[in-house]
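User: Batch of two.

Assistant: Item 1 of 2:
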Amino acid sequence: MKNIITTIVLAFIVSSVAIAQDNKANNIDNSNIALQGYSPVSYLDLGIAQKGIKEYKSEYQKVVYYFTSADQKKTFDNNPKKYQPQYGGFCAFGTYAGAKFRPDPNKFIVKDGKYFLYLYNLELDAQQLWLAEKNHDKLVSVANKNWVKLSKTHN
C-alpha cells in the first residue's frame, strides 16, 4: 500500500511543484494571514472548520490568525502555541512525502491535541491517503523529520 501511495504522491508532486511550493515555513497569504482565515480554535477545540472574521484577529510570531468570536481570540491569546497548525499549516501528507502543499481548509483531522490539514483537489485527496495508511504515529514521525528540513527551505 505504501508503495502505491508513494508513487501517487510523487507523481502529483512532480506535476504540481511549480505552483504548490511555498518559500515560507508558514502557509500564509500576502497579508500574513494563516489558515486562509480559518480559526485555529475552531479546528482544535470544536473539530470544525470555521472562517474567522477580521474583527477578531491576533498576531503570533508575525502571523495573523482570525477567529469567530472574542472568546476564541481570548482563548488563542492565552496559549497561542497550543493552536499552531502542524507543519506550518501545509498539507500533512505532503510533508510526509517531502513537499509543501497548500491544503483545503475544510480537509483536516484532529488527533492527540493537534490538527493536521490536507490537500484536496480533483486528482488527490491527501486526507484519505493519510487515513488509509492506518498508522498515524508512523506518518507523523516521518512528517516531523521532513518538516525540520522543509520549514527551512526557500525554494
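Item 2 of 2:
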Amino acid sequence: MDIHAVIRSQFYAALGMLEQAVQKCPDSLWDASEDKVKFWHIGYHALFFVHLYLQPTAADFTPWAKHRQNYEQMGPTPWPPYEKPEIGEPYIKADMLEYIEFCRKQVDSCVAQTNMEAESGFDWLPMNKFELQIYSIRHLQQHTGELMERLGTRAGIDVDWMGQGK
C-alpha cells in the first residue's frame, strides 16, 4: 500500500467537498450578519491549517500570498494576551477557490516527500507526521461538514460526498 497516495487521495476528496461548498454558497450565506463565524471565515480557517500542517515545521511555513494577519483565528488567539483578532473584509469566493487550488498543489508537492514516522514539526501537536496528516484531514472535513450543514439547513443545497479524490 502506498500510504502517501492514500493521504493525498483523502486530502483531495476533502478539498473537493470544500470547493463544492464554496461554489454553491449563496451570497446571502457567505457573510451573513447573524453568523458568529462567517461561512468564508470557517473555510479560510480550515485551508490555513491544511497549508500549515503540510509543511515540515512551523518555521518552514510561508503564509499564502493573500493571507491577512490572524484571519485563521476563529476565536481568541491561543497565546497571550488571548485577544480575539479583528476580522475585517471577507475573502471573496474567487480568493477561496484560489486558496483551495493552492492547497491542492501543496498536497501534491509536500505529501510525497513527508517521512510519516518523523515528529509532527509542531510543538503543540505531539504526534508523528502520519497522525498529523489524519488530524489535518479530520479538521478540514469537520469544518467542511459545518459548512455543508449551513447550506443544507438554510438554503436546501447539497454537497456531493467524495470518497476519494484524484
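The chain has one domain: 3-155.
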